[in-house]
Design a protein that fits this description.
The chain has 543 residues and is mainly alpha-helical. Among the domains are: 45 residues; 227 residues. The strands form two sheets. It has a two-stranded antiparallel sheet with strand order 1-2. The radius of gyration is 29 Å and the shape is globular. About 23% of the residues have low confidence. InterPro entries: Osmoadaptation_assoc.
């Protein structure tokens, strides 16, 4: 008779998976207990401090101060500050409304923990943070302290100066100038009760701030708090969009604004362009649900063209069709009334959007017939002709030349880089170069597919389209340096990343190996991506 414990039922793979699941559950339970222990210690510390204050001892006041360099500090009465590694004081000062400049302590209240959630141990900042009067006072005083050295007023100074408030207010101009911050803060809180989209916006902005603070100070706990708030904002956004889709009356404008704020937070927290593009696609879905007549105000129309320029880069990069390519979104009756619509980029996009259906079709797994491939080649040549016409007219607007040559600062590939006549022209040309790369790549792939059915397609035609893409890749490389050297450019980085990613992807095509040596291009692309990483600009993809 065999001895020992009987074997668990199931296959060996099922038993191994059960063991791994048990280990994961134990690790999650251990982490949850550790975080609960930290929460309990922080609560006990707050209770002890409150009891000391009630017994007449010196209150250990913790105040939130925004320093001149933009960091978040927790200071004591004598003006000293805690170390950056002391995460408990920083989190407590932000998360508990009871920690105020006036020393009025309130009992700390932590949110209920969802023990079914493995990430329930994360710090959950209370939602009544922005509605606390003490926090408003701290915020306005901190903003004033940034403008005037030594203008920070302690609780004792404020109590002594309460009798002659008018005289002190006259001497404290920065405080009066920034007093409106608290009013705006409370207005935002009141609007949250009316529109859930603004609550999502508040969480997204708070998550960005916490993430930046945690990253700059090397404080992991603050970063965890930012990740939690960001996940909460995303969950609320998903629920709001689901409710909106089910017919609940919600403001589409505020939801799209919340989605854009979540998209920007994704760049700050995860530095993920894929997540950013996903949120932009959600904004586009909200916009496509209505017709252009819904854009009634001047501000909405200007924001529409800003969204159009951003979404275009990702639509070309991912090769997906876009509702903006429809004629009703291009030929707008009020277009001439919006100044931003006269940007040369939008004139180019009007013609380039015709390429998006071809890119989406290229990613389709369905194999096209020979007749369909011939029609596609004709459409691509028509798009190329329209783009050539736009380029000719665009260059004609600059009699002195669209760009000049300057000595390249990013050495390793070319001796000269492009110095454009203006920032709008540089943005339009960089995006145009990326579009031409996508067009050349699509043309080459289509000709190769057609060559298997039609022997009239010559090797010279395929080589010409292949080298056209290489030519535009080099044009894109020479355009990048303008945006990141010299004077600070206020826009154009998204166009830079799109053009760089399209060119980097193209020079790695194996079909180019037998025609030209691209070793220098490969090394230069890696060095440029590292420069972007130094500037904390995430590239679309590392290749």
């Amino acid at each position: 008779m065999p001895l020992g414990r009987p074997r668990a039922p199931g296959t060996e793979a099922e038993r191994a998976e059960a063991r791994r699941a048990k280990v994961r559950a134990n690790v999650q339970a251990f982490r949850r207990r550790q975080k609960e222990k930290k929460l309990a210690e922080a609560a006990a510390l707050a209770v002890d401090s409150r009891e000391t204050c009630e017994e007449g001892g010196a209150p250990q006041r913790v105040g939130v101060a925004i320093c001149r360099d933009g960091f978040l500090d927790a200071g004591t009465n004598n003006g000293s500050s805690t170390s950056a590694a002391d995460s408990s004081s920083v989190i407590s000062a932000r998360s508990s409304p009871g920690l105020s400049m006036a020393g009025s302590w309130q009992s700390m209240s932590f949110p209920e923990q969802d023990y079914a959630d493995p990430d329930g141990w994360m710090w959950a900042l209370p939602r009544d943070l922005s509605g606390n009067a003490a926090y408003q006072e701290v915020f306005t005083n901190a903003a004033a302290a940034m403008q005037q050295e030594g203008a920070w007023r302690t609780a004792e100074n404020r109590s002594r100066s309460s009798s002659n408030k008018r005289e002190s207010a006259g001497l404290y101009e920065p405080f009066r100038a920034f007093a409106g911050c608290g009013s705006g803060w409370f207005h935002a809180l009141m609007m949250e009760t009316v529109d859930p989209g603004l609550e999502i916006l508040n969480d997204a902005c708070l998550a960005s701030a916490l993430t930046v603070i945690g990253r700059e100070r090397g404080n992991q706990e603050v970063g965890v708090a930012g990740a939690y708030v960001q996940s909460r904002a995303l969950r609320q956004l998903r629920e709001a969009l689901q409710a909106w889709g089910e017919g609940v009356s919600l403001c589409a404008v505020s939801l799209s604004t919340a989605a854009l704020s979540c998209a920007m937070t994704e760049l700050v927290t995860g530095r993920s362009w894929d997540s950013f593009a996903g949120h932009l696609n959600g904004v586009g879905s909200l916009l496509a649900y209505h017709d252009p007549a819904s854009l009634r105000t001047q501000a909405a129309r200007e924001l529409f063209y800003g969204f159009r320029s951003m979404e275009a880069a990702f639509a070309f990069n991912y090769g997906r069709s876009l509702f903006l390519a429809e004629s009703r979104w291009v030929d707008l009756a009020w277009r001439d009334e919006v100044a931003i619509s006269q940007h040369p980029l939008h004139a180019m996009l009007d013609k380039a959007f015709r390429l998006l259906p071809e890119l989406a079709q290229q990613h389709s797994p369905r194999r096209l017939k020979a007749s369909e491939l011939r029609s596609r080649v004709q459409r691509l040549r028509s798009i190329a002709f329209d783009l050539d016409t736009w380029e000719h007219e665009f260059r004609a607007q600059y009699p002195g030349g669209l760009h000049s040559k300057k000595e390249a600062e990013w050495a390793g590939l070319y001796d000269f880089a492009f110095e454009f006549a203006s920032l709008p022209s540089a943005t339009a040309y960089a995006t145009y170069a990326g579009v031409r790369i996508k067009l050349a790549s699509t043309m080459y792939t289509t000709l190769c597919d057609l060559a298997t059915h039609d022997y009239s397609v010559t090797e010279a035609q395929k080589t010409d389209s292949l080298l056209q893409g290489l030519r535009w890749s080099r044009q894109a490389f020479q355009s990048l340096e303008y945006f990141h050297t010299g004077s600070i450019k206020e826009c154009g980085w998204l166009a830079t990343l799109f053009a760089f990613d399209a060119a980097w992807e193209y020079v790695q095509r194996p079909q180019l190996t037998g025609h030209v040596d691209l070793t220098a291009e490969h090394e230069w692309c890696i060095a440029t991506a590292q420069r972007f990483a130094t500037l904390e600009i995430p590239v679309f993809a590392w290749r």
